[in-house]
Amino acid sequence: MQKRQLGRVKMVALAVGLAVTCCGHDGGDAVVARVGERQILKQELRRFVMTLPPGLRTSKRGQEARRDYLQTLIDRELMLLEAEDRGLDEDPALQRRLRRKVEERILSLFRRRELASQVEVTDVDIDEYIADAKLAEERLAEAMLVTTEEQAQRLRAELDQGRSFQELAQELSLDADSGSRSGTVGYVNRLTAPRAGIPTAVFDSLRTGAVSPPLPAGQNWQLVQFVDDRIATDPSLRTGVQSRLAREARQEIEDQLVEQLVHELGWVPAAAGLALLASLDSGGNLIPALTPRQSQTELFTFEGGAATVGDYLQGLREHRVGSPRALSDSGFVVALGKRMLQGRAMLLVASARQRLPEEPGIVQWRAQVHPEMALQALRRQVVGGADTMATEERLRDYYDGRRQAFRVPALVCFDEILFHTREEAEQARGEIGDDAELLELSRLRGNEIRRRRPDGLLCMKDKSKQVLPELWAALDEAPIGQVRGPVSLEGQAFVLIKVVRKEPERPQTFEEARTRAKASVVAGIERQLFADWLAETRQRRQSEVRVFEDRLEAALPEALLAGTATDDEAM
User: Fold this and answer.
1) What is the per-residue pLDDT for 12?
2) Do 26 and 158 have their domain in common?
């Protein structure tokens, strides 16, 4: 197999988790190779070749191709022997990670099979939720934006004396867009009203036609009134409510089950575990390192099981708990432990009662994951020194030899306002001037807002033009400061855009490219270290390998090899 493909094929072999029959009898013609006491079967070799992506297939032919494919599986078995010789498969840290992975799979299966199956959300449930939350009610809002609260109070007094809200908004509002439309913001509901600066309490309580008290709107203030009310039915609203009700129902069933099991089995803090946590010196790191014995110290006990100090510290990592009280304050530890560990522990008990850990699918999955984790640990050991070998000189040489590859892509930063239909966008385009702040306008109108940078802008690199070609073309052509559009976002939405700045493509300096260059250099060193180690391992353990050459053709007949030929061969 070509050298450039060798490393990639090894990784595919690791990833697919090939089943290995070990320590059994010679299966006659079914066995194509032996590595120590391990056997590689004909069907394993065939399955491996048939599932290889086209880009990873060998360019060799006939028996050479068969040997090439088989060598990948032999290498995998040699690596497993090395991992076992080093004790990596029995490493306590690996065993904890493996247990965690298996538990997560069991819990996922239990929730899907035993809990989700009990959930039923009806149309009546959805209708009642929408009605109770008033999610279908929409109100047509008008607003005028002014500089100070005092100015808003004066304008409110003028409105009480009969002045027209629409006229004042058109004359005085800081928001040029809504002002040009006599203050009209658009229809909002309880979810979108806060995005327009209208508190939910105001949406609920302000009667139609009445003017609100001055409401803060960023550094400014606004007056709001509702002039129309309607009931809207959005299909996506029903889908979202159904998903939410299903999640809540499943969580309620889960909470009830946990509470029942806690009552049945008990959940008691263990003095030894609390004392150990209080005595730990984190050395500035909240999650201190533990010995295997410390990690297994019981922190909470219940009938038939326990949650350990190691489980608790893992929970702190996952929940990103940063308070020192999580170690020193026993009351805080007990409360955190209940929240982080109790439900998981009880659900694992319930899963065991359903014999889920013994199911063939779980057992087989664990048997596949365990050796893969050992192989990953082995590779980390083999290439462990690569980072220190990436010297400044090597980084500089790599950068100097590939300067054209290190470029800062062209960048366009812009403001936008998003609409769901082209018609809405085209109508708004005729009403919006170039001086409009599209983000603020989106908030006032209650339009959807895509995630932005801290400066309130969206930025797009030319590398993204294949994803959104129409948007990039519009941004590339648009003059700075002018509202353009509408532009389609793959037909899912339509935006008006205003470009704020453009940055042309330029070469990266060495300092800018350093992180990327180092990653590439380290990856190359790792590949070389692993290739050298594998070659040495093959040589050292060659006496443990026996290949049955006469059986390879039956395992990989010519017709199969022809069907897996590389693109070059096919041409």
Assistant:
1) 41
2) no
